[in-house]
Amino acid sequence: MKYEAIIFDLDGVVVSTDNCHYEAWKQLADEEGIYFDRTINERLRGVSRMESLEIVLEKAEKSYTEDEKFQMAERKNGYYKELIKKLDKTAILEGAEEFITDAKSKGIKVAIGSSSKNTIAILTQIGLLETFDKIADGNDIKNSKPAPDVFLKAAEKLGIEPTKCVVVEDADAGVEAALAANMDVIAVGYASANPKCTYSAKGLFDIKVDDIM
Ligand code: BG6
Ligand code: MG
């Protein structure tokens, strides 16, 4: 086997949470009188919560103290946590479960490498918490994507060399992070047009484990 492990980004690869993030940021932005739309929301893909807030605040007419920013990020996360409570198996993206099952049946380890600090809650909601061998998320790292940290942490937890891992990502920041970790990367969805990726697919429904081994 070319790869001993596959590290999956969570949001936009395994589960559809785009709308929950959008609704939560939109509520915060509306309350603060800040313009926010789905095009700006696209820029938050793969980016940490605090860095996402900085992007949202580019449209703000006043400046905020660090303490106010922290409170705003907490407020957004409160709205987001309410929204993800409604997620169930139907939020799993097309082809994801089949791809993961196929990889595991071939003896390949599977892990999550996500910027989200809500990873455990989301995996629990969609019934996939026990599916992954290891989970590395926003709580394990200081520098988020495009820094390689979360993928290196996932490889370390698995005990597998980074060069033996392949990442699945839907964000350009995640593609950069995988390459910086010395890993190959399957770019799906929004990132599938990224010329730096190793493999490109519309989603996990559009690629088979055999295609990359
Ligand atoms: C990433 C999402 O997976 O997690 C980003 O693509 C999000 O949009 C980031 O900002 C952090 O998520 P959370 O759940 O910790 O606020
Ligand atoms: Mg993602």
Please describe what this structure looks like.
41% of the residues lie in helices and 12% in strands. The protein is an alpha/beta fold and 213 residues long. A 6-stranded parallel beta sheet has the order 3-2-1-4-5-6. Helix 1 (18-32) crosses helix 4 (66-84). 6-O-phosphono-beta-D-glucopyranose binds at residues 10-11, 21, 44-49, 52, 77, 114-118, 138, 171.
Number of helices: 9
Instruction: Tell me the helix content.
Output: 40-55%
Number of strands: 6
Quick one: overall form?
globular
Low-confidence stretches: none
Strand order of the largest sheet: 3-2-1-4-5-6
Mean pLDDT: 97
Tell me about the biggest sheet? 6 strands, parallel
Percent strand? 5-15%
- For the record, give the distance between the C-alpha atoms at the N and C termini, rounded to a whole number: 6 Å
Tell me the series of helices and strands, N- to C-terminal. EHHHHHEHEHEHEEH
Radius of gyration: 17 Å
User: Which structural class best describes the helix and strand composition?
Assistant: alpha/beta
Hetero ligands: 6-O-phosphono-beta-D-glucopyranose, magnesium ion
List the helices and strands and how they pair.
Blueprint: E1 5-8, H1 18-32, H2 38-42, H3 49-56, H4 66-84, H5 96-105, E2 109-113, H6 119-125, E3 134-136, H7 149-158, E4 165-169, H8 172-180, E5 184-188, E6 199-201, H9 209-212
Parallel strand pairs: 1-2, 1-4, 2-3, 4-5, 5-6
Helix pairs in contact: 1-4
Bound molecules: 6-O-phosphono-beta-D-glucopyranose (BG6) and magnesium ion.
